From TrEMBL, chain A:
Pfam families: DNA_primase_S (PF01896)
Domain of life: Eukaryota
UniProt keyword list: DNA replication, DNA-directed RNA polymerase, Metal-binding, Nucleotidyltransferase, Primosome, Transcription, Transferase
Enzyme class, first EC level, given as a word: transferase
Comp. bias regions, Low complexity: 56-69
Renumbered residue ranges of the record's region Disordered: 1-69, 439-458, 486-507
Protein source organism: Penicillium ucsense
EC number from the UniProt entry: 2.7.7.-
Stated name of the protein: DNA primase
Database matches in Gene3D superfamilies: DNA primase, PRIM domain (3.90.920.10)
A GO term for molecular function: DNA-directed RNA polymerase activity
TrEMBL record, chain B:
Essential cofactor(s): [4Fe-4S] cluster
Similarity comment: family membership: Belongs to the eukaryotic-type primase large subunit family.
Domain of life: Eukaryota
GO CC terms, sorted: alpha DNA polymerase:primase complex
GO biological process terms, semicolon-separated: DNA replication initiation; DNA replication, synthesis of primer
Native species: Penicillium ucsense
Record protein name field: DNA primase large subunit
Record-listed [4Fe-4S] cluster binding positions: C307, C390, C407, C448
């Protein structure tokens, strides 16, 4: 277990650290199980903090022995990741909107999926340290972030009904490739390749520009979901406090495709086009030419051709198109798309309404490229969404942030996996041998060492040795911007707040 | 955001009196001079009125609100409502515009009218803030009243009123308007020319419905709303403010307990309003002389309205009903006069697949609870809950798979509804066509009453000719138990003709 060494063990780095599970592990597992089912957790966090200090070895997995998760990300690797790489401090600052712990973090719900697939809801943590400690102890395969409640979620059972209300959460969006299965030809289900990732790229562009330009949101964090999708977290104070009906309004504003795959034409929009749609069309036009027509060659199969013809308005034009395409079955989609206009121009169809055809073509572009959001996720404040930077248990990839300005450069297939990252730390440590070798075994010296690695002005953190660094740096600068505005907003609130105390006798 | 605090003071101009000193300062109230006919009721009244005025004004306003609610409840069109309400308003709660008097707003008559409107509103707030249900109904009726008056208002006065509200609406300058003219046209449906309208920039949260339908232009968090959406925005503002203050009032209400002059009046008022909706009172559904027992339900079912007949048929078909179906049906049966013992017997016999143990452990308690035989003190004293009215049944908007409660007119697809009607013997093409039409217009009461009138047409004709039943006895049915009672009486009259001396 080369990596499973608590990174905060610097204060006792002289201690002889056992590199094998200690004898006390069985007991620990017992305690942990109890904790897991103990809903009250009254003496949390004090007792747990104690546990951690008493432990001479890092917390073992709940089952007592390492069990492999589906993709071979075993519990040790998971633990090492949390210990050495997971940016707890930044995650805390992000959710806390400041450095001093507040209710924004303290009353925030976390939901942990444990290694045995148990699902622990309503976890909350007063500080970043306690958060980190509990995550290390539980070693969840992933965890999700819920809303900030009016009271501490851990106290929910002591409160009378209706007293714990969600009061704020980031406005979130979820794009998932499975919703695109009927229009992508390259992959199905959980698989992705560069060709179909393009759909996510264009979705990010469209949604991002709408949120910024139309709704005036500025702090939008896009996160790769680890396999085949992306999440957006809109973190502006104004977005966080939106009630559910306003969230539904935004989801409705952004939703253009309605109905399922069986309901025929899914885009039915009013003319003239709303500016949001006009802008989206401008963004999507080129993507349609590249992705739908070229890369996916969507209209190659007979079935898809029929679907396309079903979306075109003019019967006689459709007839001539069908004849033409049946004559040359290998005709690529790009040519087929061009044929529509070419044949229309010849004036063969007397009934042809050119503006109807133009509208239909616009609708088709939208139907094949416009973002397919999982709207339910956005509509409810209490919806839980997977935290950034956790590991996708299936792929082992980290849920890293995506820079929307460089959305096109983002390649999901090169996102680092947890195994690669741990390897990079070892490689780095091998190349940069510590100045003073400690007494401990060679295996663990790197990690112990790095805490006191005083090379340069400050010690180098583990993530900085890996390809995770640019992502964490991006996250950090995102948070810095958010905090800057948050501080300005707070000052303003404090200046005006005392004047407006609600008078209960005023009806 | 909504500028919530009209009295919010600019931090620089905030009075810097020490709050300790302020505590002993004499309160200075804002003098109400009512420059406008309309009122958003932001400032509570502070002058003194007599106890008689207190009660009389409240009752007058209540009469108007009750009628307004009854109109919406009977699906009257806006024009019908207007015709119905205008004389009542004139009588109980007149409110003239400034132009009605040569002296304008200074006329004492106008002042008195406005004062009465203002005070009565706040008195009723006290009376109706106690429960969630009352608050909701009060807010709805008040909003309708406000809308009605707003639409009737003189357009110049209306503009002056809106300006006085100091809402967070920023007019769009002509330059800006011309710049984005193209966007405005394409974003706003039903608009021909941009310069016809006054445009306002508001926070988009205020017009969330417009945003959801994508029928407003958005830029950087601001929605560009044309002047004609004013009504809906004012209404939203009115409702939002009222709901918020009702919530606050309800929290302050316990302090009123000490006042033994007002509390009885207020309680009396809220009870009166209560009867406007659920027309059902204790004896309403009971039919004298009808032997109602567990075994007679099957034969009585022909008098049940469609919702209950549907439940009954489902019960007989599956020997089971899901929770909400049982609840709706049990309360209805309670309403027609089935005793608790008989009711338990009825369900026991109906649930053929269940053992006694299962029945007693899973179902019996709920039945007894509905009758107020068990449960908390309030439930027992109130003898359980009242039978559901049509409004309550219609309000249930998610009848799930395998559930049979709700109103078939509302919750069934039209084809299934027609199938069900035919199954209960309604074959008349004309009636079915009418039902389809009513349901399409969401006039579910009307559809149900149409079926009632058709299936009792001979009897109705007869009692009308006899003059034994007045028109009031044949008013629109808005409660399943009324349906049963009327149907039962009509049919038994027909069976025994020379009984009608009452």
């Amino acid at each position: 277990m080369p990596h499973s060494v608590s990174a905060d063990s610097s204060h006792r780095d002289e201690e002889d650290l056992p590199d094998a599970p200690s004898g006390g592990e069985k007991d620990v597992a017992g305690v942990k199980l109890e904790d897991m089912f103990d809903d009250e957790d009254e003496d949390f966090p004090a007792s747990n903090a104690q546990d951690m200090k008493m432990e001479s070895s890092p917390a073992p997995s709940p089952a007592g022995a390492p069990t492999a998760t589906p993709a071979g990300v075993d519990t040790d690797v998971m633990l090492a990741f949390y210990q050495r790489l997971f940016p707890f401090r930044y995650l805390f600052q992000w959710l806390n909107h400041g450095v001093v712990p507040t209710k924004d973090f303290g009353n925030r719900e976390f939901a942990l999926t444990l290694q045995n697939d148990a699902y622990l809801r309503y976890q909350s943590y007063p500080t970043a340290d306690l958060f980190r400690k509990d995550i290390l102890k539980m070693n969840p395969s992933r965890f999700e972030i819920g809303p900030v409640y009016s009271a501490n979620p851990r106290d929910r059972k002591t409160l009378r009904g209706g007293q714990m209300k969600p009061i704020s959460k980031e406005l979130v969006f979820d794009i998932d490739m499975t919703d695109y299965d009927d229009i992508r030809t390259c992959c199905q289900k959980a698989n992705i390749c560069h060709k179909c990732w393009a759909f996510v790229t264009m979705a990010i562009k469209v949604i991002d520009s709408a949120l910024r330009e139309d709704f005036g949101f500025e702090h939008i964090l896009w996160v790769y979901s680890g396999r085949r999708g992306a999440h957006a977290w809109v973190c502006d104070a104004r977005a966080r406090s939106l009630p559910d009906d306003r969230r539904r309004a935004i989801a409705g504003y952004l939703e253009i495709l309605r109905g399922g795959s069986q309901s025929g034409k899914r885009v039915n929009i009013r003319r003239p086009l709303h500016p949001h749609i006009t802008r989206s069309l401008d963004i999507l036009k080129n993507h349609f030419a590249q992705t739908t027509l070229k890369d996916q060659d969507t209209f190659a199969s007979g079935e898809q051709v029929e679907k396309l013809l079903g979306l075109l308005p003019d019967k006689s034009l459709n007839e001539s198109l069908r004849r033409k395409w049946e004559a040359s079955p290998d005709r690529p989609s790009t040519s087929k798309w061009a044929d529509i206009d070419a044949l229309a121009k010849t004036g063969k169809s007397s009934t042809l309404n050119t503006s109807a055809l133009r509208d239909a073509k616009q609708d088709i572009v939208l139907e094949y490229t416009y973002p397919r959001l999982d709207a339910e996720v956005s509509k409810k404040m209490i919806h839980l969404l997977k935290s950034p930077f956790v590991i996708h248990p299936g792929t082992g990839r980290i849920c890293v942030p995506i820079d929307p300005l460089k959305a096109e450069e983002f390649d999901p297939l090169t996102v680092p996996t947890v195994m690669e990252l741990l390897g990079e730390i070892d490689a780095y440590d091998a190349k940069h041998p510590p100045a003073v070798a400690p007494e401990g075994g060679a295996d663990i010296e790197g990690s112990v060492q790095n805490d006191q690695d005083t090379k340069g002005a400050r010690k180098l953190q583990d993530y900085e040795k890996t390809s995770l660094k640019p992502y964490v740096d991006f996250f950090r600068s995102f948070i810095a911007n958010l905090l800057k505005e948050e501080r300005a907003g707070k000052r303003e609130r404090e200046e005006t707040a005392p004047a407006v105390k609600a008078d209960p006798m005023e009806f | 955001m909504i500028r919530q605090d009209a009295n919010r003071i600019d931090p620089k101009r905030r009075a810097t009196i020490d709050h300790k000193k302020r505590q002993f300062a004499t309160p200075t109230y804002k003098q109400q001079d009512y420059p406008h006919r309309l009122n958003l009721y932001d400032t509570p009244p502070t002058a003194e009125i007599t106890l008689e005025q207190f009660e009389q004004w409240a009752i007058d306003r209540l009469k108007v609100l009750a009628e307004i609610e009854a109109c919406s409840y009977r699906n009257k069109s806006p024009a019908e409502t207007e015709a119905h309400i205008t004389p009542l308003l004139q009588k109980y709660l007149p409110l003239s515009s400034n132009t009605a008097s040569p002296n304008g707003a200074a006329d004492p008559r106008l002042k008195n009218e406005r004062q009465k409107d203002h005070y009565s509103h706040f008195i009723l707030r006290l009376a109706f803030s106690a429960t969630e249900d009352l608050r909701r109904r009060f807010a709805r009726a008040e909003t309708m009243l406000f809308r009605f008056r707003f639409q009737k208002d003189d357009s110049r006065e209306r503009r002056a009123f809106i300006e006085s509200l100091n809402l967070d609406w920023e007019p769009v300058s002509e330059d800006e308007r011309n710049q984005i003219a193209e966007h405005l046209v394409s974003a706003t449906p039903g608009l021909r020319r941009v310069d016809e309208e006054t445009w306002y920039k508001v926070d988009w949260e205020k017009v969330a419905e417009l945003v959801e339908r994508r029928s407003v232009f958005m830029r950087r968090g601001k929605a560009y709303v044309p002047g004609r959406e004013q009504l809906s925005m004012i209404m939203a503002e009115f409702t939002a403010r009222l709901e918020r203050s009702l919530e606050l009032t309800s929290r302050a209400l316990p302090r009123l307990d000490e006042d033994d002059r007002l509390t009885p009046i207020l309680n009396h008022l809220s009870k009166n309003f209560g009867s406007a909706e659920s027309v059902y009172s204790e004896a309403e559904g009971h039919v004298d002389g009808a032997a109602i027992t567990a075994s007679s339900i099957d034969s009585l079912a022909q008098h049940f309205p469609l919702c209950m007949r549907n439940l009954h048929m489902n019960l007989r078909k599956n020997n089971h009903l899901k929770h909400f179906g049982r609840l709706q049906y049990t309360l209805f049966l309670k309403g027609i006069g089935l005793s608790l013992e008989e009711c338990i017997l009825f369900w026991r016999q109906s649930f053929k697949g269940k053992t006694d143990d299962e029945f007693n452990s899973q179902y019996k308690y709920n039945i007894r609870h509905a009758y107020g035989d068990v449960g908390g003190d309030v439930n027992r004293r109130g003898r359980g809950y009242p039978p559901y009215s049509c409004q309550k049944i219609l309000g249930d908007n998610n009848v799930g798979v395998g559930q049979a409660h709700g109103c078939p007119y509302r919750h069934f697809s039209v084809d299934n509804l027609v199938g069900l009607l035919q199954g209960t013997g309604v074959h008349d093409k004309e009636v079915l066509r009418g039902v389809r039409e009513d349901v399409g217009k969401q006039r579910y009461h009307i559809a149900c009453n149409r079926v009632f009138e058709w299936s009792h047409k001979t009897e109705i004709k007869k009692v009308k000719e006899d003059g034994t039943w007045s028109q009031a006895d044949l008013d629109t049915i808005v409660h399943p138990n009324t349906y049963f009672k009327r149907s039962y009486l009509l049919k038994s009259l027909a069976k025994a003709p020379p009984r009608g001396e009452a």
